[in-house]
Amino acid sequence: MVTWVKLVQQVSCAPLADLDRFYAPANPQGKRQRQCLWHKYQKGLVSPKDDGPTGQASVISVVEQDYPGTAAWYRHLFWSVLERKALTWPEIQQVYLQLKGQWRYRLIDERHAREEFWRSREGIRELGAELIASPTLEAGTVILCLIAEARLRLNRSDYLSGREAFACWLEQSPFRQKFAYSQGELLHLFADVLGRDVLRRLGDYRM
What one-character-per-residue DSSP string does 40-100 give? Predict the structure, then answer.
């Protein structure tokens, strides 16, 4: 995960070569794996694994021991939602049930949570402004789920509004606050979510 690598670099003040030397994962035989893995992490060519053989700490866990908070970023629900090409209704529901605080209450009526077909209590039109203004990964997660909901309901208007809201959220997101990504870099990084039509509307014609 590209942003996890950037976070580790930021808190450690260490170049990739040092991270590769100190945190290269071991193979099952206990030997160090090939070098330059961290350069591949940074480029998004491979992802660090968060699980290993029994009794063997993952790279994520080892780094967390030295730099607390990095594992929470890597394991956040946002990333698992982002990686899914298309969420089903049960999957969206499970994401909402894992949320804490106001978002969970405002999105799902748990009295009807077991029904096969349902929709969120409030949609992107009602929640959009608040979500955009919330500089948290939780808000980004909610927007991604509302986009998925709109796709399942074949609601083109909400689908477009959700993707535009996601682009606006990126401007206030932790990616800007923690890592000083430019908006152009973020549009490129999340181009698959936004789609060509939204990128054109935003004036980003590179995609």
Answer: HHHHTSS---S--STT---HHHHHHHHSTTHHHHHT-HHHHHHH-SS--HHHHHHHHHH--
User: Is 6 a domain residue?
Assistant: yes
Secondary structure of residue 190 in the 3-state scheme: coil
pTM assigned to the model: 0.83
Render pLDDT for 60-85 as a digit per residue (tens, 0 to 9).
988 999 999 999 999 999 999 998 87
Q: Which residues pair with 26 in a beta bridge?
A: 32
Q: What is the pLDDT of residues 161-180, one digit of tens each?
A: 999 999 999 998 998 888 88
**Same domain for 52 and 125:** no
Domain-embedded: residue 72: no
Residue found under tokens 């206990």: 30
Rounded to the nearest integer, the mean pLDDT of the chain is 84
Q: Which residues partner with 32 through β-bridges?
A: 26
| DSSP code per residue over 11-46 | HHT--HHHHHHHSPPBPTTS-B--S-HHHHHHHTSS
pLDDT (tens digit, 9 = 90+) per residue, 31-48?
Answer: 555 568 888 888 888 888
CA dihedral 2, 148, 138, 45 (to 10 degrees): -10
